[in-house]
User: Fold this.
Amino acid sequence: MVWLIVLFLIPFIIVFKISFAEVQLAMPPYTPLFEWLNGKLVAVKLNFSNYHYLFTDALYVSSYLYSLKVAAVSTFLCLLLGYPMAYSIARSNPATRNVLLMLIVLPFWTSFLLRVYAWIGLLKSNGVINNVLMGLGIIHEPLTMLQTDFAVYIGIVYSYLPFMILPLYSNLEKHDLTLIEAAADLGARPFTAFRRITLPQSMPGIIAGSLLVFIPAVGEYVIPSLLGRTDQLMIGRVLSDEFFQNRDWPVASSVAIFMLALLVVPIMLFQRFEKRTLEAGK
Amino acid sequence: MSEPSGQAKAPYLRIENVTKRFGEFVAVNEVSLDVQRGEIFCLLGGSGSGKTTLLRMLAGFETPTSGKIYIDGQDMSEIAPYERPVNMMFQSYALFPHMTVEKNVAFGLEQERLGKDEIRRRVGEILEIVKMSPFLARRPHQLSGGQRQRVALARALVKRPKLLLLDEPLAALDRKLREHTQFELINIQEQLGVTFIVVTHDQEEAMTLSSRMGVMNHGQIVQVGTPTDIYEFPATRFVADFIGSVNMFEGRLIEDEPDFVRIRSEELGGVIYVNHGISSAPDATVWAAIRPEKINLSREAPPQPGENVVKGVVKEIAYMGDMSIYLVQIASGRTVRVTIPNVARHADDRITWDETVYLSWHAASPVVLTR
Assistant:
């Protein structure tokens, strides 16, 4: 609780405060919110123009929408890939299970940045993939893969897949397998049993995994900067440009606050779902 | 080994030389068994006796290593669990936690692609029978243990299976509820005429439920018969010991006539006279098994001295309410268990601790066992 206040609430309040300020050439580079005179508060200057600005400049709107789209597609792809993996790990015997889980976590042993750079080497025009495909005579012109949406999806799915697999695994591993036998006994073919018993029961895992991928993916900065398009920025990049290049702290802060507000929505939906399943009793 | 059922018609369930191995371990060993239509057949055995494996093979969750299973004349070898005319009531009930009672019961019918109205009608009917109609919209966690058991039963019965398999159906219920449910199960079975195969480790449950039962040990069925057969005429020492309690005396056959035998037992310190013949080699080692309730306890020596009488000292009395258990030590050092019904409420001259007593029994009471 103390940690939450120190590491989350206080920084949040600071950023929130800056988002109502105006830029000025000073140190710090924004106007104060409160004006003090002889130890007395004489004025509070709230400036909403930063938020207004977000909705008038097409750059911000399109970046937000693009970020949401990239995050949504990546989350879906992670789910599509991660579910079968989590499922087969949960159903394998305990000895292999630990090895497989190790392999899922293993990439974290190397630097995140390094792993994303490695994808540049794979995807670029004279990179490994193009060279192999050309060498085999499958293609004659190199494919443009770098600086496309495709590369961003690969980067995000690759980096965030463990965050999908682990919560799914911990859910699937707890399932009572006699329920599947009961479904088979009642005449359900394996796929029907999966659809009607396993899938609904793994919903909490699906939602937890999806949030763990979706939320950081919306604000993702490194992957789209290294692998992504240059004509369409994601909101994380916009934020950092605003901050470091334009030195407009108040606008950068309002970008961050609005992003947070956007992400609170799915979290609250998740909370409601959790509460409902709790009431339904596990 | 199978026992002739006394009926000429083909058995409804036929298990033919079924063996199941898990690696080196033989869970079920050459089991053959016939069950008639409409029976409640109990498989009784301790843990690891292979009874659950046998049940799971009937449901199709395990495949026999060798042997065949026929249900209503149809070979089940190639038939997947979801295609068998068999339903199972799981020990844990295995109700689907995310579905209501109604949805749980309807699940099986939905797989048959029946119409909505038909499903609703049949679900309603079966819930009426198990008296769960008021709980239609509840979820399993909102039900008591007994109610869950009824839902599980309804869910299995609603498919009108040829065979209903029940895995320890009453194990999760408390004692009072168990007794009540036993009779209800029998009622429902009679009402619907479905053939029940029940697996249990609880001999009382097996005795009250079954029309016939099979006692399993080490993957084999050691004896098949009615509860009375098995209790009064156990075929082996294992059965005699497993069902109820018994006093077993090892001895040697000293006289072996067609209509009586005499056994000299060192353990008893005397001779046991049995008024029926047995088939065994003379001088063979045999065991005489006498049930505790078939032994008389008296202060005075019974009129016929010598055989079927032994003297001892009361060491322990356990008052059970409806009866008392006496542990009497005889001269050889063995302790004999005797049960006496508590007929009178005030019995001041009841035999008590450290009294010298005579144990005696009727010549028809001992069962002579050769293995």
About this structure: The domain at 13-240 of chain B is CATH 3.40.50.300 (Rossmann fold). Residues 175-192 of chain B form the longest helix (18 residues).
